[in-house]
């Protein structure tokens, strides 16, 4: 019988993945209870920051008994967790907090020897290169799969939650047995195929030990002068955005691992990227296209998800870029050269006719 308790956090992209995070935490508690443990699931943030797509957290705490659970729940949230889960690798560079904390490494709350789980199509070695250099050893687990937007608009069950459940059963079998993880998944999904997804997560999750110092030390860390309470002007702390310009302090790119590139030739000017971007990264051009302001872009990928034209917006690995220069002027100056660059970076053809046939003309 397991003793003590285990704390698990799920880091997710605001309202766009909130339902997914809830389902992961609740399924963990349900599976653990089937194993004779007790537990609870709860959230960290309210709706206000989540509506803007700001990274937030859900928690699951599982304990051997009610007394251990109460002791674990004596804090507002676990400051140290045994397992941290990022539902996709666009968060691998860390979490850009909605408050004044700055970008935090994903492993920051993970105890020494704990586990960081990330859903990704990349190898563990590739993901490690995008995570801040470790200050203490931990285990990195990669659950094979694309970035999930299962919480976008209405819930779309892509079984990410069940693959995660299988990965946790692999890492912490004393708290979640594989048998009861499958039983919990089938009960929640009302579909026997959910058990197969749990088994997939259990079998296919790749584990890699990360030593102190492994990772990257090149991530930019933005620092701002914070006003003390004696220097705040009444009713305002930061000037709002003025017409025609952006707030110079609103820079979200330090946590980005992917960025969108736009095929302006196939853009149908539908406004979907502009409307759905949680960080208001898109600016309208004189021609009516929409270009990305890369300093404001956190790389969530929602624009590529909502764009109705195939391959008009493609998410590209951040490691391919060396600056945050906006690209519409490059396209305006030399379209063939820009389209060649687009093909080179995205790996998809920039042929307007082929893309228009797939997504429709203006």
Number of beta-strand segments: 13
Figure out the total of helices.
Answer: 12
Overall morphology:
globular
The string of secondary-structure elements, in order, is EHEHEHEEEEHEHHHEEHEEHEHHH
Helical fraction equals: 25-40%
Query: What proportion strand?
Result: 15-25%
Q: Looking across the biggest beta sheet, what order are the strands in?
A: 2-3-1-4-7-8-9
Distance between the termini: 64 Å
CATH architecture field of the largest domain: 3-Layer(aba) Sandwich
CATH class call of the largest domain: Alpha Beta
How many structural domains does the protein architecture include? 2
Radius of gyration: 22 Å
The CATH superfamily title of the largest domain: Pyruvate-ferredoxin oxidoreductase, PFOR, domain III
What is the topological layout?
Blueprint: E1 5-13, H1 18-34, E2 38-43, H2 47-50, E3 55-63, H3 66-72, E4 81-86, E5 95-96, E6 103-104, E7 110-120, H4 124-128, E8 138-144, H5 160-171, H6 178-189, H7 193-204, E9 206-210, E10 258-262, H8 272-276, E11 282-284, E12 290-292, H9 302-306, E13 313-317, H10 328-333, H11 335-346, H12 352-359
Helix pairs in contact: 1-5, 1-6, 5-6, 5-7, 6-7
